[in-house]
Amino acid sequence: MKVVLFCGGLGTRLREHSDTIPKPLVNVGYRPIMWHLMRYYAHFGHKDFVLCLGYRGDLIREYFLNYREHMSNDFTMHGNGEQIDLHSSDIEDWRVTFVDTGMHSNIGQRLRRVRKYLQGESVFLANYADGLSDLPLDRLRVGHGYDARA
Question: Checking DSSP bridges between strand 140-141 and strand 31-32, what pairing results, if any?
Fold first, then answer.
């Protein structure tokens, strides 16, 4: 099941950060909020992401294009750092589609612009890329909401 993440807002409530970076890239610990959110979905087996980019989408693209896995995984370095052997990987099996959905688009417009990347999907997950939760996603029944009895 694909996961659509809305990463295009102007970030007016985080003014001290949002003048330079989009809210999804604000760090929690050593990683941006959206990385933690994507890890959350990946933990439950959802590793195919569609990012709806807007404000400072260039920085989100740059973050992933220059992703440095050795900063969050154990590794062995040989020599002067010429060879690094990762002992685990945290995003190697992710698929991330980056879509420019416009600077001032609303949620509906963003979703419409990524529609072609959702073809063939009968159901998909969608979320804002700047918030975290501890909802046990495996207990969420798609189309029915959260099942506290599960």
Answer: unpaired
